[in-house]
Amino acid sequence: MKLRLISTAFAISLLPAAANAQVTIDMGAFTCAQYLAMPPGMSRDFSAWMSGWFSYQSRRTFVDVLLHQKNIASVQSWCRRRPQANVMSALQAALGPQQ
């Protein structure tokens, strides 16, 4: 009985560690088709993250919401024509080279 109680307590103590697992995405392998297939909420969050990353890479220190929406539309349009291309190529082509 004690062994089973100790085993159960140990198993329960491991649950929070499993719940905090991180997800890693290889952006070089992430395709336009995968991006376009995302549900709207996930696509919005992913687009915001990518916009922040791209702004950091190009040393842009401002946020322009209208430009952000235009850039998302440009990337999605580019991706629709090339679903097998990776998202990083779409960013480069639709938004221009990083400086």
The coarse silhouette is globular
Total individual domains: 1
| Main β sheet profile | none
The CATH class: Mainly Alpha
Tell me the name of the CATH homologous superfamily: HNS-dependent expression A
First-to-last CA distance:
65 Å
Helix and strand sequence = HHHHH
Number of helices: 5
Uncertain runs: none
Number-wise, the strands total 0
The secondary structure category is: mainly alpha
Structure notes:
This protein is an all-alpha fold. It has one domain: Orthogonal Bundle (10k-s Protein, Hypothetical Protein A, Chain A), CATH 1.10.890.10. It is built from 5 helices and no strands. It is globular.
Short description:
The protein has 99 residues and is mostly helical. The protein has helices at 2-19, 32-36, 40-57, 65-81, 87-95. Helix 4 crosses helix 5 (87-95).
Core attributes:
99 residues; mainly alpha; 10k-s Protein, Hypothetical Protein A, Chain A; 5 helices; globular
